[in-house]
Design brief:
By secondary structure, the protein is α+β, with helices and mostly antiparallel strands. It contains seven helices and 15 strands. The strands form five sheets. A five-stranded antiparallel β-sheet has the order 5-6-7-8-13. Strands 9-10-11-12 form a four-stranded antiparallel β-sheet, with no helix packed on it. A hairpin with a 4-residue loop joins strand 9 (291-293) and strand 10. Helix 1 packs antiparallel against helix 2 and helix 1 (49-79) packs parallel to helix 4 (157-179). The longest helix is centred in the N-terminal third of the chain and has 33 residues, at 85-117. The protein is elongated.
Length: 369
Amino acid sequence: MTDNGHEIEQPDERVPKRVIGTPPHGKTLIPAEQKPDDVEVPGVYYPDEGKARKGERIVALCFTVTFIAALVFIVNYVVFQVGDVDSTAVSNLALGAPLTVALLGLAAGIVVWVRQVMPKYTLVQERHAMASDGETRNYVSETFLQGAKESGFVKRPLLRRTLLLASAPLGLIPLVLLRDLDNSKMPASAFHKELRHTVWGTKNKEGKPLKLVVEGTGQPIRAADFNSPGGILSVVPEGYEHDLNALAKATLILIKFRPEEIKSGVNLNWTHDGIVAYSKICTHVGCPAALYEQTTHHILCPCHQSTFDAADGAKVIFGPAARPLPQLPIAVDEQGYLIAKGDFAVPVGPSFWERGDAEAKVRSEGGHA
């Protein structure tokens, strides 16, 4: 059968029909627990009690699996801490696997509950005026209350208890996650090292400042060789070319400007002969902001199109990023190679709540945040 060229799915004839809005055959609704076993109620198909009992046990098993998996998630959240790339990968697996099992178990249990325990109806929605009369509204209310009874939540204690059991740890998971947002008890040294600082503030094996080297080749950069205005290089710290943890925060973009192109947003004390170094880590969500438009001096992050004005301290001119790309103070050593004078004055990458203290300090000292 078709309607305007579209096929209409035919209802299952084995299941009685009920028209929404009027009780079937003008009779009042009969709750499942009041229906005699030898009486067939028009418009309702009640599952066999043996099948319903089997479904009840399956649902209880699913909810028990959800309970266990949710507890495993909470335990793993405490045990598997992050700190580097490898531990983060392990933590993701340790948290993702049990949470997936918990949610799948809960969903599977609900599906089996509806399909094998509750009565079945084939409902036909008739076209009528949007405003329902009082009789229809009363019938809908009566139908809702009957549905609550037919769900078996009260009649079948095994389903009720296992559902509550499965829901309890799932309800605790957000509380555990929110509790972890409080880092007031975290050692200050660890907090500062992991979030506020990069390896640019360290020294090399000879106790000298780190050189800026080309990403991929590890070639040190002479300021005299990087003399073409508009030029750009992707730069990493000397000795950390293959340290992914360090590069996640310390990768730079190096840009050469003509003196007249540099605007007030750039801290000139942190530049050398028109060469400016910015963090390559976008301040939105941490993607590499690696696209550069030479004529406009715009740095573009390809992930969410945040755009920064490199000639004006990498200030945000478009997109969701909320802060400029931090500028790294640079200089040259006695051989003319570019080196880092120190670490970034403010934390790089995406924002976190406590970073405001560092920015306020930099602004008070007249620096660029």
